[in-house]
Write a structure and sequence with these properties.
six-stranded mixed sheet; binds ribulose-5-phosphate; four-stranded antiparallel sheet; 226 residues
Length: 226
């Protein structure tokens, strides 16, 4: 199976999960990226059942609206029962690196108000230790050099993502060469750097359920059960 076929399989599995578990009329949290895009397409048959969706990026908002799914401002929502999103890497504890698409800040906000975070990923995303994928860090533009120095002092190699501005008007620094044995600790440490808006470690609030696309079928992993 190709990587796209594996992504398609997990996208459909997530849509089936939503059909089974999300109450009719409830609002769904929807992530960003190529896997999330396949999930959005798989929502088409369910759109009458959804009360609407909260989008984790402008790109996702546009896709949802094109499909006829009303997009709801997160400030109008108390909690979300389910949030479905992809990841760049996910470890056995269901901690993730996210932000390859640059939507990490809004993704982390949506994850924070969600009861169940469902990660949809093809098998290539599952790793024993996070860090092979460069860790995205969203930074206030005037702080890029200052934050880069701090990131280098932590042992990484920071590279400013070229020609890229986030939905929030900020820059992304991708940090190469990290071996992240303590994702919760590093996430908290990076949050302390002045000028950092968000870092792409989703560890304090990781995924609750991983739907992993493998050639043998979609495998399910629950947080705390691995
Ligand atoms: C966007 C993300 C995506 O979830 C992540 O980059 C995975 O994307 P894809 O499904 O295209 O591999 O965090 O900010």
């Amino acid at each position: 199976m190709t990587q796209d076929e594996l992504k398609q399989a997990v996208a459909q599995a997530a849509a089936d999960h939503v059909a089974e578990h999300l109450p009719v009329g409830a609002i769904l949290g929807v992530g960003t990226g190529s896997t999330a895009n396949l999930f959005i397409a798989a929502l088409a048959p369910l759109k009458q059942r959804l009360g609407g969706a909260v989008a984790s990026s402008e790109a996702t908002r546009q896709r949802l609206e094109k499909l006829g799914i009303p997009v709801v401002d997160l400030n109008a929502v108390e909690r979300l029962a389910i949030y479905v999103d992809g990841a760049d890497e996910i470890d056995p504890g269901l901690c993730m690196i996210k932000g390859g698409g640059g939507a990490l800040t809004r993704e982390k906000i949506v994850a924070a108000v969600s009861d169940t975070f469902i990660c949809i990923a093809d098998a290539s995303k599952r790793v024993p230790v996070l860090g092979r994928f460069p860790l995205p860090v969203e930074v206030i533009p005037m702080a890029v050099r200052q934050v880069s120095r701090e990131l280098a002092a932590l042992g990484g190699t920071p590279k400013l993502r070229q020609d890229f501005i986030t939905d929030n008007g900020n820059c992304i620094i991708d940090v190469h060469g990290l071996h992240i044995s303590d994702p919760v600790g590093l996430e908290a440490r990076l949050n302390q750097i002045v000028g950092v808006v968000t870092n792409g470690l989703f560890a304090a609030r990781g995924a609750d359920l991983l739907l992993l696309g493998t050639p043998a079928g979609v495998q399910r992993f629950r947080r705390g059960a691995v």
